[in-house]
């Protein structure tokens, strides 16, 4: 007898059905918690890219327990898609790369920083690895940007990451804000997938860093605000004009005329514009400047 498509579903899919989780992803967060004790002392949490809501379920069950009313527990879940309500979870339908969504999340946490931000965001996979990795990285950076506004010093940020060729750049960016950055792969995450999770502990932004929504990654808008940033929010590197002032000006047009003959011998030091040969494409003859 052939196997039905239901039989072929993996063990975590079946366990999720049995235990009432909305998605098998719930086990990824539970297994990350087993290793990192993510929920210890957490009262306020943000779940970015939350639909259909299994991570929010985990947060709700772990932070609220069996209590019907847990006034001091606050969970905010955000996704492009609407999701069915969950006890104790405030939902925002929006795009985490948009400033307006970020601002809405921040409003919910006014005066009360979050202890934990999690993000399981994934783009619709195109199959073009470079594009998928780029969009995934953009989601992670958008999540990081929101995190810098709402997370308390010492707090934890957990996010899905694609271990592509440029992943070390992301690690470096995360290390600017967190003293501990670990790449973790839960057993429930398929080995065939480049998916993993960064667990970023002890939020400690650079001294003087002011969270700022003019991050150019948001809305793909390199607006002037970005050039107004100061202190550790803006890194300025030295700009150096190089070359002899008498060298050819690359913005000028020079006539194809024989003016002077000097040969540049390989290995010798070129001496300004006088050592330049130009081949006239029309006459195919060599002119020497
Ligand atoms: C893998 S699912 C998340 C599963 C979820 N953690 C759970 O356990 O049920 C990825 C989610 O990311 C959301 N997403 C992708 N891009 C987004 C964006 N720019 N803003 C908000 N959500 C986004 C998708 O709508 C999708 O629901």
UniProtKB/TrEMBL annotation:
Gene Ontology cellular component annotations, sorted alphabetically: cytoplasm; nucleus
Intracellular or extracellular location(s): Cytoplasm; Nucleus
Domain of life where this protein originates: Eukaryota
One GO biological process term: cytoplasmic translation
Catalytic class of the enzyme: transferase
Enzyme Commission number, as recorded: 2.1.1.205
Residues the entry annotates as binding S-adenosyl-L-methionine: 53, 55, 79, 95, 120
One MF annotation (Gene Ontology) recorded for this entry: tRNA (guanosine(34)-2'-O)-methyltransferase activity
Ribosomal RNA methyltransferase FtsJ domain residues: 21-203
Keywords associated with the record: Cytoplasm, Methyltransferase, S-adenosyl-L-methionine, Transferase, tRNA processing
Catalysed reaction equations from the record: cytidine(32)/guanosine(34) in tRNA + 2 S-adenosyl-L-methionine = 2'-O-methylcytidine(32)/2'-O-methylguanosine(34) in tRNA + 2 S-adenosyl-L-homocysteine + 2 H(+)
Residues of the active site: 160 (proton acceptor)
InterPro entries membership: RNA_methyltr_E_TRM7, RNA_methyltr_RlmE, RNA_MeTrfase_FtsJ_dom, rRNA-MeTfrase_E, SAM-dependent_MTases_sf
Family: Belongs to the class I-like SAM-binding methyltransferase superfamily. RNA methyltransferase RlmE family. TRM7 subfamily.
Record function comment: Methylates the 2'-O-ribose of nucleotides at positions 32 and 34 of the tRNA anticodon loop of substrate tRNAs.
SUBUNIT field: Interacts with WDR6; the interaction is direct, and required for 2'-O-methylation of position 34 in substrate tRNAs.
Name used for this protein in its record: Putative tRNA (cytidine(32)/guanosine(34)-2'-O)-methyltransferase
């Amino acid at each position: 007898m052939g196997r039905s498509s239901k039989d072929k579903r993996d063990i975590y899919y079946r366990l999720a059905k049995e235990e009432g989780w909305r998605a098998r992803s719930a086990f990824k967060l539970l297994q990350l918690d087993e290793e990192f004790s993510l929920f210890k002392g957490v009262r306020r949490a943000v779940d970015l890219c939350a639909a259909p809501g299994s991570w929010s379920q985990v947060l709700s069950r772990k932070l609220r327990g069996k209590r019907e009313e847990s006034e001091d527990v606050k969970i905010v879940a955000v996704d492009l898609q609407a999701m069915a309500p969950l006890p104790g979870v405030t939902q925002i339908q929006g795009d985490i790369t948009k400033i307006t969504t970020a601002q809405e999340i921040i409003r919910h946490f006014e005066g009360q920083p979050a202890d934990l931000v999690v993000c399981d965001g994934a783009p619709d996979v195109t199959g073009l690895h470079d594009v998928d990795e780029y969009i995934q990285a953009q989601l992670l950076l958008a999540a990081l940007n929101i995190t810098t506004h709402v997370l308390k010093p010492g707090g934890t940020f957990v996010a899905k990451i694609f271990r592509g060729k440029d992943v070390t750049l992301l690690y470096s960016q995360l290390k600017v804000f967190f003293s501990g950055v670990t790449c973790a792969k839960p057993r429930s995450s398929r080995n065939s997938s480049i998916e993993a999770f960064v667990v970023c502990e002890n939020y400690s932004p650079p001294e003087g860093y002011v969270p700022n929504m003019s991050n150019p990654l948001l809305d793909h808008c390199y607006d002037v605000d970005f050039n107004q940033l100061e202190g550790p929010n803006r890194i300025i590197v030295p700009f150096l004009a190089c070359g002899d002032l008498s060298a050819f000006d690359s913005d000028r047009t020079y006539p194809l005329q024989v003016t002077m003959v000097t040969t540049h011998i390989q290995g010798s030091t070129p001496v300004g514009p006088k050592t330049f040969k130009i081949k006239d494409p029309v006459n195919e003859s060599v002119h020497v400047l």
